[in-house]
Specification:
Order of helices and strands: HEEEEEEEEEEEEEEEEEEEH
Radius of gyration: 25 Å
Strand order of the largest sheet: 4-5-6-7
Helix content: 10-25%
Distance between the termini: 57 Å
Strand content: over 45%
Structural class: mainly beta
Mean pLDDT: 80
Shape: globular
Largest sheet: 4 strands, antiparallel
Number of helices: 2
Length: 242
């Protein structure tokens, strides 16, 4: 009996010691992130921070594209779908117009070192599109519609001096018979670095750039900084798991 009591006591002391020694005296500090959203509210462009209205400004409800918002160093940038950029609710600039290429439509925005990048396309009067990237309102990269084949650009991210953006270009397939198709493209500083017959997109986090490569059947491969990262069965969900 004494032996059993001694063994149980030793076990109890070991467990108690483990509890106190394994307890981290300096637990990690929780990361607090602010959440910004933008949409139309009461006929005004409204920006919320953590669920509370941060500021509002007047803008034609038909031209504001919800979701074009970017925050850098506590400065909040928004853009409508025609390329008018606001900083903290004050107009910053309009993009440079091009009468020959048509009307600009903005698909995405990124801010790096206070430089504002917009990505989208021009559309002319016969519905032909030309992909374009703007930096502070001036064209940085332009891919004009050639031979009647449209180009477009959808998403953008900037790391240092490197500008990544994704989009597509119409192509002609000659086999088995002539037909139009679309090639998806990822560009880096205006040069193609990846092409695919399926969907391509990019997104970034800090100094990391991610490529999203659709594979059909709701599958996608994700590449991190050019290296294969993982495969996911739900194409849209990968945006949320990173």
């Amino acid at each position: 009996m004494k032996t059993n009591i001694k063994i149980n006591l030793v076990a109890f002391i070991a467990i108690i010691g483990c509890v106190f020694s394994c307890k981290n005296p300096n637990p990690p500090t929780p990361i607090v992130r602010d959440i910004y959203t933008a949409s139309m509210f009461d006929g005004k462009v409204t920006v919320w921070k953590n669920g509370k209205i941060l500021f509002q400004y007047e803008k034609n409800i038909n031209s504001f594209y919800e979701g074009l918002i970017y925050v850098e160093n506590n400065d909040v940038y928004t853009s409508d779908n025609k390329g008018t950029v606001f900083q903290n609710g004050q107009k910053k600039f309009d993009i440079e117009k091009n009468a020959e290429l048509g009307t600009f439509y903005c698909n995405g925005m990124c801010v790096s070192n206070s430089d504002v990048y917009l990505v989208g396309y021009y559309m002319n009067e016969v519905q032909k599109t030309s992909a374009v990237v703007f930096k502070n309102g001036k064209p940085l990269y332009l891919f004009p519609c050639a031979y009647g084949l449209n180009t477009n650009a959808f998403s953008i991210y900037v790391i240092g001096n490197d500008v990544y953006f994704s989009g597509g270009r119409q192509t002609i397939i000659t086999i088995p018979e002539p037909s139009e198709s679309t090639m998806s493209i990822i560009w880096k500083n205006g040069e193609e670095i990846m092409t695919s017959s399926t969907n391509l997109s990019i997104f970034g986090n800090g100094n990391n750039i991610y490529y999203l490569v659709g594979k059909g059947n709701n599958e996608a491969d994700v590449y991190k900084n050019g290296q294969y990262f993982f495969n996911h069965n739900y194409y849209e969900y990968v945006y949320w798991v990173l």
